[in-house]
Structure formats: structure tokens, C-alpha cells
Write a structure and sequence with these properties.
An 8-stranded antiparallel beta sheet has the order 2-1-13-12-11-10-9-8, with helices on both faces. 25% of the residues lie in helices and 24% in strands.
């Protein structure tokens, strides 16, 4: 059964968990039974030893996408556009490599990761107020990862394009529009997007392999996809607004399923508008995660309980840490069991792995799958702007069933899941890390 919150226990427990998962520092805030609880542990930077406080800012990464989707929904509620408005209607200059997609891709496609536009273009277009505009101009060469609307594949570029839609309709740069539409109406004092603002607070730096990351943050052009910095309590306040009508007249419109996620074992079963959708023991869960250069964020909400949890971390085995914390916390608060991460089957499963060998590639990532002694091995290498910040992935894939596999790099506590599937036209794909990657050789 669920119990009352024991603040002293959670102060201690957060410290124990970050030690177990080699996290330099973390911040936790949660809303339960109308009260917000805040906790902090560890250090913001191992090189300086500055302690994490509950007011410290962390990069929330792709949790930002829910904020950008909310900005769009505020404009929808004002009648400025609809989810099915073609992007080109708002941005006549917009184009991608496929002329038909240029004309027909909609706001809904962008916010549900179904556009098929290659999503991992990380391009530094400068620090100026025109950086998002310049980024969208550079999308003219982006190819299709999959046909429009054919499947789901995580798309950072789609949210940056959505941020440009916000700029066009508000007449303000994305950062300023975010302040006017969301940050100031909710009274969020510790939510910023630019490093010169984050500098005014205690701010975390990411860590890679236990050392401070070589760069503090991503380029400014990535703003609408992942540049919000905030304290955990501000992120909780943002999600709390989605459980009532304090921000949107109908926040539930964002919880409507838009697409099934081909690999439901990573973050959830479906994507809504911005939000990831799942069910735990039959109860609706809305969530989103985020990763930047050595920082990781996770936000969950259980609407029927009015419970919201945000945890922010700056390195270590963040995914395993998040899952362990959620399992313990939701069990304690709501008696709710968080589904375990998918791992290898109790009994070995035999299937034909030769059919999956080959090269799978999309913008930013190449997977080479080979068969050795009847076992499938994956080698993943980042390409493009962030290649130096992402070490290669290498692990054996263990079959769970005919299409679902799990694997983990040596020394990692967490299993990755991968699903092999085909589109309606027969094209083979691997779905790994919430992205669809086509087989190219």
C-alpha cells in the first residue's frame, strides 16, 4: 500500500542511489497529495565540488519538447493554426529534400515524431536570434528516414521546425516566446534557456566517464528541441499545470495517442502530442526524458493521482538510476509497480538471426550488425556533429522473441531493447533508442 512521504528517508535515499549508480549529483522534486517535496544530493561538478541544492539548474534536454509542444497548443487554442495545418502554410520558405513532404508535412507529424524527416541534424547556426531560422533553412537537404506518417522515429529537427513556427506566429524568438507563453504565467523563477542566464544560478555540468564533459551544452539552434535549464521543482510546476486548466484549456488533447511506438520497451507504448504515453497497471502515465552532453532528466506524471515526479542528474548510469528511483518512489507513493526493464528471457530463445545482419543507417547514426558463431552483434557509431561526444556502442543482441532483442555494453547495468520490423512497403528497419533506422546494405 502507498504510504506518507518521509522526507528524511528520501534525503538519505537519494544520496545512496547516486552513489550506487555513480551519479555525481542529482535533484529530485515530486508533487504528491498537493504538496511539493524537493531533495538534492552530490555535486554539480566533480572538478569544483560545488554541492547540488534544490535550486540548482540542470539541463532537462528533450523534456523541453513538451514545452515546445505546449507553446504550439496554446497557439492552437487561440485559433492561430491547427495540428493538421501544413508547416508550409505557416513557413512558406520551409523545405526538406522530398518535395511532397515539404508540401504536406503537418504540425501533428512534427509533434508526434511521425514526419520521417531525418531527426538528428545537430547544426551550430550561431548564437544570434536568427539561429532557429537559419537551422530551418538548413533542413532543405534533410532526407526522409521513413515515408511521411509510416512509423515513429524520434525527430529533434521536427521540434526545432516547430519552434520556428512559434517564432513566426508570435513574432518573437523562441526563447522570448517561451518566457511569455509558459515561464512567466507559471511564475517559474528557475527556468532559463541561455547559458548567460543559467550562470546566475548554481548550474550543473554534465559528466562523461566520471569527468566533466568537454562542452557545457548544446548549440543554441537546438533550443526548441532541448535547451531548457531548470530546477526540478519548476519542471514539476510545469507538469502540474498540465493536470488542470492553469495553462491550456484542454491539456488532455496532448495525451491523445497519435502513433504506436514500434519498440514499446524503451520509454512507453505510444506518442501523444509531445508527451510519451504509457500504462502501468492500467493507469495512464504521461512522461518525457531528456539527455544532453552528460546530463539526463526524467519527468513522469500520473494524472489520476495528481502525482508528478522529476529527477535530474549530471552523469553516471543515469537511465538505470532513473528506473530504480521511479520503481521505489512510485511504489511508496501510490503502491504502483513500474514495469521492469526488458531483459533476456529465462530460457534461451532460438531464431534466425542471419536475416537481420547488415548495415542500418540514418542521419547521425550507423549500426552494423554481424553474426558471429550464430550470435547477432551490434556496432553503433555516431556520425555528424556530435560524433566526438558519443563513444561507439558495441554489444551482443540476445533474442527475446522473433523480432525483439536485448543487449548491453560491457559494464552497463541497463539493457537496451531493439525491435526489427518492416514498413507496409516491406522495407526492413531496426527500432532502437526510440528511433527507426532503415536497412541500407
Amino acid at each position: 500500500m502507498a504510504g506518507a512521504v518521509d522526507p528524511a528517508r528520501w534525503h538519505a535515499r537519494l544520496g545512496e542511489l547516486i552513489a550506487e549508480y555513480e551519479i555525481p549529483g542529482a535533484s529530485l522534486a515530486f508533487l504528491h497529495e498537493g504538496e511539493v517535496h524537493e531533495f538534492a544530493a552530490g555535486v554539480l561538478n566533480v572538478a569544483t565540488g560545488v554541492e547540488v541544492t534544490t535550486d540548482s539548474l540542470f539541463q532537462i534536454g528533450s523534456v523541453t519538447k513538451v514545452w515546445t509542444a505546449t507553446q504550439i497548443m496554446l497557439l492552437v487554442e487561440r485559433g492561430e493554426l491547427t495540428l493538421d495545418t501544413p508547416v508550409a502554410d505557416v513557413l512558406p520558405e520551409f523545405q526538406v529534400a522530398d518535395p511532397e513532404v515539404t508540401k504536406t508535412v503537418t504540425i501533428r507529424h512534427l509533434l508526434s515524431h511521425t514526419s520521417g524527416i531525418d531527426g538528428d541534424l545537430f547544426l551550430d547556426t550561431g548564437r544570434g536570434d536568427d539561429c532557429v531560422e537559419k537551422y530551418v533553412a538548413a533542413c532543405a537537404d534533410l532526407a526522409q528516414n521513413h515515408p511521411l506518417g509510416a512509423t515513429q522515429s524520434y525527430c529533434n529537427s521536427g521540434f526545432i521546425i516547430a519552434g520556428r513556427v512559434v517564432e513566426r506566429l508570435t513574432g518573437k524568438v523562441w526563447d522570448a516566446a517561451l518566457r511569455e507563453q509558459i515561464i512567466e504565467p507559471l511564475g517559474l523563477t528557475h527556468t532559463w534557456t541561455l547559458p548567460e542566464d543559467a550562470l546566475r544560478f548554481r548550474a550543473a555540468i554534465g559528466h562523461l566517464e566520471g569527468r566533466p564533459a568537454p562542452a557545457w551544452g548544446l548549440m543554441r539552434s537546438c533550443g526548441p528541441a532541448g535547451l531548457v535549464c531548470a530546477r526540478a521543482a519548476d519542471v514539476v510546476a510545469f507538469a502540474r499545470a498540465h493536470l488542470g486548466t492553469g495553462l491550456l484549456a484542454d491539456p488532455r488533447a496532448m495525451w491523445e495517442p497519435q502513433v504506436d511506438i514500434p519498440n514499446p520497451h524503451t520509454l512507453g507504448k505510444q506518442w501523444g502530442i509531445g508527451w510519451i504515453l504509457d500504462e502501468w497497471q492500467g493507469r495512464r502515465i504521461i512522461s518525457h526524458g531528456g539527455n544532453t552532453i552528460g546530463q539526463a532528466a526524467m519527468l513522469w506524471a500520473v494524472p489520476d493521482a495528481g502525482t508528478v515526479v522529476c529527477v535530474l542528474a549530471n552523469g553516471g548510469y543515469a537511465s538505470a538510476f532513473q528506473h530504480a528511483l521511479a520503481t521505489e518512489l512510485f511504489g511508496e507513493l501510490l503502491g504502483l509497480a513500474v514495469p521492469p526493464k526488458l531483459g533476456p528471457p529465462a530460457e534461451p530463445f532460438e531464431t534466425d538471426v542471419e536475416r537481420y545482419a547488415g548495415v542500418y543507417e540514418r542521419a547521425g547514426m550507423r549500426f552494423t550488425l554481424t553474426v558471429r558463431d550464430g550470435r547477432l552483434s551490434l556496432y553503433g557509431e555516431a556520425t555528424g556533429a556530435l560524433a566526438e561526444a558519443q563513444p561507439p556502442l558495441e554489444f551482443e543482441l540476445v533474442p527475446v522473441d522473433d523480432t525483439t532483442f536485448v543487449g548491453r555494453p560491457e559494464g552497463q547495468p541497463n539493457w537496451f531493447s531493439a525491435v526489427f520490423y518492416q514498413l507496409a512497403d516491406g522495407t526492413p528497419y531496426i527500432h532502437l533508442g526510440v528511433r527507426a533506422t532503415p536497412k541500407v546494405a
